[in-house]
Specification:
There is one protein chain. This protein is an all-alpha fold. The chain is built from 2 helices and no strands. This is Twin transmembrane helix small protein. Keywords: Membrane, Transmembrane, Transmembrane helix.
C-alpha cells in the first residue's frame, strides 16, 4: 500500500509542477504579445506560476534529503 501512496503522490506532484510551468510559459507568451492591453497582469501571473513551481521543487528536495528532515 505504501508503494501505491508514493506512486500516487509522485504522479500528482509531477503533474502539478508540469502544469504550473506550462502555465507560466503560456502567460509569458501571452504577455509578450504587443496587442494585449494589460501585459503586466499576465506577466505577474507567469511569475507566480514559476514561483509556485520552484516552491514545489524545493519542497520535494526538502522531503528527499535526509539532512533537512532530522
Amino acid at each position: 500500500m505504501e508503494l501505491l501512496t508514493v506512486a500516487g503522490a509522485t504522479l500528482v506532484s509531477a503533474a502539478v509542477v508540469v502544469t504550473l510551468y506550462s502555465l507560466g510559459v503560456r502567460f509569458t507568451a501571452i504577455a509578450a504579445d504587443a496587442q494585449q492591453t494589460s501585459p503586466r497582469v499576465k506577466r505577474s501571473f507567469a511569475n507566480i506560476c514559476f514561483a509556485l513551481c520552484g516552491a514545489a521543487v524545493l519542497f520535494g528536495l526538502y522531503l528527499i534529503i535526509p539532512y533537512f528532515t532530522k
